[in-house]
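Please predict the structure of the following assembly.
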Amino acid sequence: MARTYNYPRGMPTTVEKTSSRTLSGAAGIGIAVGVYGVSFGVLAVAAGLSPAQACVMSMLVFTGASQFAFIGVLAGGGGALAAIGPAVVLALRNAAYGLSLLPILPGRLRDRAIVAQLVIDESTAMARAQDDPRAAWRAFLATGLSVWLCWNAGTLAGALLGGGLGDPRSLGLDAMFPAAFLALLAPQLRRPGAPVAAVAGAMIAIAVLPFAPAGVPVIAALAGVVPGVLVARGAKAGSAKA
Amino acid sequence: MSWTLLLALGGASYALKAVGPVFAGGRELGPGVRRTLDLVAVPLLAALILVQTLGNGHRLVLDARVAALGVAAVLVWRRAPFLLVVLAAAGTAALLRALG
């Protein structure tokens, strides 16, 4: 009896289940991102980048929305300098993600400097969806590496394929982005204040979209955190009273 | 396309990602800050969903992406695997565009 009492209840199975689900989730996200990477490679070459430039961009910049914004401006006839603005603004959210990940990242500065490159939408969302810090770190690393490998493999394939793939829109590839973000957002909506933050962020982005430069609506949506935090604080105070 | 600009974008992108992990590392976070950071990704993801579903330059449009997002929402609600969610969304949009 004493032995069963001391045994951490259900720990081994729980951990195994979590990591196998984490790994399959990371692989699934990677494959989905890889498919989109193919279309990035195709579009980048069509916008005037050489295949080598498309590949180096995916390795170094490694944040999909920024890269698409960049080649979007190029393809629309804008210069490279004009293209950098929206790309950087879109990448601003990675700074917020990096800050939010601080509690789960490794302690050594060198390790943090290396994994910083993996701070993106997908790895952050997968980490935030976990219950404990260790699982969150594993989910972050697995997803970040999976997405990095697949994104770059996809870019290479797309850049070499060139125009042979056909129109990414007719394949519905653009519709994959919101679907992926929805799947990533859903588990986070259980947090106190999260539904309010989501609705506020969405409304701000839509309100700003007609007149703000590309990338700005998503950054402006960050203000949706404020009502979310107020609701979360209220919920905490309410449960403390009850 | 200039290599210099491309490398500059890569550097800026890494610097933004590293703000937290490298430059703010090791600092204690108060409960208020932590509560805020817990929610930071939520409004951004919600905004990305709407902007990429409805946005067309500076205009809001209703097209095949809305139906694709609806299909994705049902699948997410039914706890379908991630890959199925995104492939079903792409398939829906592709089908509607082929028909329309």
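Residues 1-14 of chain A have pLDDT under 50 and may be disordered. Chain A touches chain B through 100 residues (CB under 8 Å).
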